[in-house]
What does this fold into?
Amino acid sequence: MKKRLVIVFIGIILVVSVVLTGNYGLSDSDKQCYESAVGLQENIDEIGFKDFKLTNYPVAFCDGKRDYVITSSGNSYSIQKRKPVLDTFVATAFEVEGHYEVIIPTKELMSGLMNVGKTVTGDMESGYNEDEQVTTIWHETFHCWQLSNFEDNISSLNGGHDFGEEGYGEEMIVKCCDENSEVTALYKEGAELLKKAAEQEDKEEIRNLILQYKDIQEKRNALLDETVQKLEDYYTSIEGSACYVEAMGCRYLDKKRFEEYYMGNINLYVKGSSKYYYSGMAQCMILDNLDSTWKTSYDFSKPLIYVIYEKLGL
Amino acid sequence: MMIAVTALKEKIRKKVLYIVSILGGLILALFGTGTGSISIDGTPVTDYKILAPILLAILNVISCVMAVVLSLDTIPNEYERKTSHLVLIRNVSQTKYHAALTIANIMAGLLAELILFAVFLLFMISQHQGGDIWRLVPAFFISAICVVLICVMTSWLSIFLPRFFAGTLSVIIVLAGVFYNMLELLNSIVGGFAGKLLKGILYIVPDLHGIQQQAGSVLTDGTIEVHLLLKGLLWIYIFAMLLGLFKRKEV
Amino acid sequence: MVKCKNLKKIYGKKSVVKNLSFCVNDGEVFALLGSNGAGKTTTIKMILGLTKKDGGEIELNKDIKIGYSPDTPYFPPFLSGREVLFYYAEIQKISREESRAEITKLLKTVGLEDDKTKVKNYSKGMLQRLAFAQALLGNPELLILDEPTAGLDVMGRIEIIDLIGSLKKAGKTIVLNSHILSDIEQVCDRGIIIGKGSVLGTWDKNEEHYGKSLQDIFIEKVGGMDE
It folds into this structure.
C-alpha cells in the first residue's frame, strides 16, 4: 500500500511539474517580435504611407492549435486566445468579422518551416530569426492597410479577376510567363534595367533606363494575354509595395541583411510570382528617387510602373 | 535484482550490442572526423557549435534504435524458453518479473549509449573542446531519458504484441519522436483529416527531438527547457505504469 | 496433498481440459499419463498457477512449497550449475548462507559436483538433473516433473529414474507427467490416463488389473478412444 502511494505521488509530482513548466500562452519570443514591430512604427512612418499604423490591425499568432490575437490600445496590448481562423500554416492578411487582421504563424513554427530540408535538428544558426518575423508582420500589416483603404482600387487593378483562388495565379504565371522563353528573357532584361534604375540617383539616367524598360515591357506585353498582364500588375504593385515596406523595415533592423537579401535579390528571377515582389520593390525604390512624396497620393488604382512613367513624362 | 543482472549479463554476451554500438560509433566517427561531411545549403559544416548538436542528434537516433533492438527480445524470449515458469512459480509476480527484465533492457541500452558517447568524446577532443568534456555528463543523462523511455516502451509492447509488430511499432514511434518538430510543423500546414490524424499522433508520441535538443544545448552552452525533460520523464512513468498493468494471459 | 475437481481449460474454442478430476496423496508418486496433446502440461500449469483455469477447483495443502522441473529446461548458458542454483535461490529469497550449503548438497544429490562446467557445455541429461536440483531448492513438499526423461539416452533415463526413486524414498510427493510407460511403471504408485483433456482411466501399482500391464491398459483406453 505504501509503495503504491509513493508511485501515485511520483506521478502527481511529474504531472504537476509538466503543467507548471509548460508554456501555454503566446511565447515570450513572439511577444518580443510584436513589441519590436510596434517599436519600428516611427521608422515606418518616415516611409510616408498615410495612416499606415501597425496598431490599427490585430495581429494573430497561430501555433497550429490556437490563434493568439494581439490587440493594441494606447501603449499597451492585450492577448486573446481563439480557435485558429485558418486551418493552414500561412502568413497573410485575412478578414475576420468585418476587419482585416494579420495572421502569422508563431516564430517557432516559422523557424521550423524555414529549416525543413536543411536539417533534422531544427537547431541551425541559419534559421529564421526575430527580425524576419518582425518584417513579415509589417509586410502583412501593409496588406491589411491596402485592403482596408483601397479594396475597390485593388479589385480594378487586377481587372476584377479572382486570382485569390488557390494556385490559380501561380499556375497562370508559370504557364504563360515562365514556360515561354522569349517572355522570360525579356523579363530578365527588364529586371536588370529596374535594378540599375533603383540604384541610380541621377534622374536623367533613370529616365533613359526606364525608357529602355518601357520598350522591353511593350514587347513583352505583346506576347501576353491581357489577363496575365493584369495578374503581373497586381503582384508587382500589391506584393511589390508590401515587399518594399518589409525591406525598409529590414533596413532599420539589420542593414547588412537588407543589402544582401533585398538589394541582392532586386533583379531576382524565379519561377512563379515571387519575382514580382522584388521588381515591385525596385519600382517603389525608383519612385523614391524620383519623388519621395509619391506614397501620399498612390491609391493602388494603377500599376506602380505607370506612376513611374507619369513622373518621367513617358 | 538478480533477474535483471542475469538478463543483462546475457545481453552483454550477445554480439548485437557490440555490432550495433560499433556501427553507430563508425557513423559518428565518419561525420565527426570529416571523412564524411554534413552540409547545409551546400556548405560543409565545420563549426563545432553547429556540428556538435547534429552529431548528438545522430547519436540519439542510433541510441534509440539500439534501445528498441536490445529491448525487443528480452521478455518474449523468457516466455518462449519457458524460463518464466521457473521464476513465476517462485512467488514472483508478472509485474515484478517484467520490471526486472525491463531494468536489464535499460541497463543494456545505457551501456550502448555510453559506448557511443565515448566515440563522441573522441570527436570533442579532435575538435579541441577538451575543456568542455564535463558537459558530456549532463548531456549523457539528458539523452538517457530518450533511451530509458524507448526501452520501457518497447518492453511494454513486447509483452502483448508479436515481436515483429512490437519492433515495427517501436521504430515508428522512435522515428516520429525524433522528427517530432517536423510533425508539429506538418500539423500546422496540413488541414482536414490528415491534420487531425497528425494532431492525434503528436499526442501519443514522445517528443524525443525536444529532449535531444536539450542535450545539444548543454554541449553548446545553450538554455535548457526543463519542461521537455519533465515531459520525457512523464512518458517514462506512463510506460512504466502500462508495463505494470499489462500481463500475459498465458505464460 | 493435491485435489483437482472438474478442471476445465479452453483455448479459443478448443476445450483442452474437460472435467478432469484426480487426487494425489502425501508421499506418493502420481503419474499423469497420456499422448502428446492430451492436456497433461496444461493441467500441470493450472496446478502451478501459470495458467488460469476456466472451471473446476484445485485444492492444495496450505502454504505448500512446490518444486517444478520443466520438460525442456533452459538455463543461462554462461552460468555454471552452482550459479544457476544461486540464481533461483536468490529469487526464492533463500539466504546466501543457507543456500550455499543446500546447493552443495543438491549438486551432490543430482550428480553435478563439478560445478565449474558452464551450462552451455551440459548434456541433455545434465540439464535435466540441474532442472531437478532447482526444483528441489527450498525443500518443497510437492515436486512436479514434466516429461523428465524425454529426449534422454538410455543412461540418462536410468539416472533420472534412479533420482526419482531416491526422492520417493526421501518421502517427497511427486506428480510425474510422462508418456513413457516403462518409466511410470518403474517409479509411480498411481496415475490417471488422460486423452483429449479427460480422464480415460486410472492405474494403481498395487491393484490387480486382471493381469493387464500398464501398456495394455493404456492401449485399451487410448486406442479405444481413437476409434
